[in-house]
Design a protein that fits this description.
single chain, 431 residues, alpha+beta, Beta-Lactamase, Heat Shock Protein 90, 3 domains, 10 helices, 11 strands, 57% helix, disordered N terminus
C-alpha cells in the first residue's frame, strides 16, 4: 500500500473526539433554548465526562430531576447531554429528547462535512485506482449517513409529536384550573344564602311548634266546654306567653328571606352553567358584555382586599366564535390582574366599538411587567411568578383563543405601575 493510500485509510477510519466535531459556539444556543423551556442547568459532556459547554445553575433548594442522554458518533457513544430541572417541570422528557435530537443532528452533519473536506483534499492527488477504491468506501459511508439521517428525521418527528401532545395537555390543564377557580368562588357565594336559609328554617321549626301548641290549647278549651269569657282569657294569656304576635310577623320575614336565598342560589347556578357552556366547542353567538359581567360576578370572592372595580361596558354587537375558549381567554387575563397586587387593587374593565373592531380592555395598577420580560410573556412555560405559582400558559392560551377568533391580543405594561391588556376582535366574525 502506498503512502497516499495509507493516508486515505487513516482519514476514513480516524477516531474523532467530540470536541473536534462540535464547538462551544454551536452548542450553547441549543442549551440556552433548553433554559428558556424551564431547564435549570444544561451541559454537553465529552467522552471523558468533561464539560464542553455548560449553562444555567442548580436550584437553591429541592432535589433536581436529572437526565443524561448519549450523543453518538458513527453509532458509538462519544458524549452525553446532561439536563437538570425541578420536579414539576411540564414536558421534561419531551424537551430532553428534542434537544438530544438537535445536538445529534449537529454532530452528524459536522462530522460528515469534516470527512468530506478532508477526503476531497487528498483525493485530488491520488491515482484512478485509488480514487475508485476511495469512491467505493465513500459511497458506503454516504449510505450509512443517509440511513442515520433518515432515522434521525423519524426520531425528530416522533419527539415533535410528543411535545405537541404535552403542550395540548397543558392547555387543557389550564382550562380546568380556571373552571376550578370559578367553582370555588361560586361555592363561597352559594354558602352565604344556604347559611341564612338553614338558620331561618331552624327558627321557623320552633315557631311552628308554638303555633301547634296554641291550636291544641284552643281545641282542648273548646272540648272542655268552659265559659266563653274564660276560654278567651286563657287563650290570650297563652298567646302572650308564646309571643305568637311576634312569631307570626317574624315567620313571614323568615320565609321571604328563604325565598330570596333560593333565588340567589338559582341565579348563581345559572351563571356557573352559562360560564361552563357545556354544549360543546362549536361556533356560537357570544354576548361579550354579558359574559364579562358573569365572569366578574363569579370572581368577586377572589378580589384582593380593598379592591376597586371600575367598569365601562358599552353594548357590543354579538360575535360568533368558540365561546368556551373566548371566555377562557378573558378568565386568564382577569386572573393575572387579580394576582398583580395583594391589596388596594384598582381593576378597570371597558368595552367599545372602534371602527371595524371591538375593543375589550382589562387594566390594573399592579406590579407591572419588567421591560426585558415583556417580549416573552406569550412564550409557553414562561412566567414571572415564583416557582410553583404559575404554569406560564395563561396568556399563551388567551392569545391562541383570540387569534383563533380572528382577533389580536395587545399588552402594555410598566414595572411598578400596572398592566393594560386589550382584546381586539373583528366587528363581524363568520363561523
Amino acid at each position: 500500500m502506498t503512502e497516499a493510500s495509507s493516508h486515505i485509510e487513516f482519514i476514513i477510519g480516524e477516531e474523532k473526539r467530540l470536541a473536534d466535531i462540535v464547538g462551544k459556539a454551536e452548542v450553547e444556543p441549543l442549551l440556552r433554548s433548553a433554559l428558556k423551556l424551564g431547564i435549570t442547568r444544561a451541559a454537553l459532556l465529552d467522552e471523558d465526562d468533561l464539560p464542553l459547554a455548560v449553562l444555567g445553575e442548580l436550584p437553591e433548594s429541592g432535589a433536581p430531576v436529572r437526565k443524561q442522554l448519549n450523543i453518538l458518533v458513527e453509532g458509538e457513544p462519544k458524549g452525553a447531554l446532561l439536563l437538570e430541572a425541578t420536579e414539576d417541570l411540564p414536558g421534561f422528557e419531551a424537551i430532553a429528547r428534542l434537544l438530544q435530537d438537535a445536538l445529534q443532528l449537529t454532530v452528524t452533519n459536522n462530522l460528515k462535512r469534516m470527512l468530506t473536506t478532508e477526503v476531497h483534499t487528498t483525493i485530488v492527488q491520488e491515482s484512478y485506482e485509488q480514487l475508485v477504491n476511495t469512491n467505493r468506501r465513500l459511497m458506503e459511508s454516504e449510505r450509512r449517513y443517509r440511513d442515520l439521517a433518515r432515522d434521525l428525521e423519524l426520531k425528530v418527528e416522533e419527539r415533535t409529536a410528543e411535545l405537541k401532545a404535552a403542550y395540548s395537555r397543558l392547555l387543557q390543564q389550564e382550562k380546568l384550573a380556571a373552571v376550578g377557580q370559578l367553582a370555588a368562588g361560586m361555592a363561597h357565594e352559594i354558602n352565604t344564602p344556604l347559611g341564612f336559609i338553614g338558620s331561618n328554617l331552624h327558627s321557623f321549626t320552633k315557631y311552628q311548634a308554638r303555633m301547634a301548641e296554641m291550636l291544641e290549647l284552643y281545641q282542648r278549651l273548646l272540648d272542655e266546654g268552659g265559659v266563653l269569657e274564660q276560654i278567651a282569657w286563657q287563650a290570650r294569656q297563652r298567646r302572650q306567653q308564646l309571643k305568637l304576635d311576634f312569631v307570626l310577623t317574624d315567620s313571614g320575614l323568615l320565609l321571604e328571606q328563604c325565598r330570596e336565598g333560593v333565588e340567589r342560589i338559582a341565579t348563581i347556578v345559572a351563571q356557573l352553567k352559562g360560564f361552563a357552556h357545556l354544549d360543546g366547542m362549536e361556533q356560537q353567538s357570544m354576548d361579550l358584555v354579558h359574559e364579562l359581567k358573569q365572569l366578574l360576578a363569579g370572581r368577586a370572592p377572589q378580589f384582593p382586599p380593598n379592591t376597586r372595580l371600575i367598569t365601562d361596558l358599552q353594548p357590543l354587537p354579538p360575535v360568533v366564535c368558540r365561546v368556551p375558549l373566548m371566555v377562557q381567554a378573558f378568565a386568564n387575563i382577569l386572573d393575572n390582574a387579580l394576582k398583580s397586587r395583594a391589596e388596594g387593587l384598582e381593576l378597570r374593565v371597558s368595552s367599545a366599538v372602534a371602527g371595524e373592531r371591538l375593543l375589550i380592555s382589562i387594566s390594573d395598577n399592579g406590579c407591572g411587567i419588567p421591560a426585558d420580560q415583556l417580549p416573552r410573556i406569550f412564550e409557553p412555560f414562561f412566567t414571572t411568578r415564583p416557582v410553583g405559582s404559575g404554569t406560564g400558559m395563561g396568556l399563551t392560551v388567551a392569545r391562541e383563543a383570540v387569534i383563533g377568533a380572528g382577533g389580536a391580543l395587545e399588552v402594555t405594561s410598566r414595572e411598578g405601575e400596572g398592566t393594560v391588556v386589550t382584546v381586539c376582535l373583528p366587528l363581524t366574525l363568520d363561523p
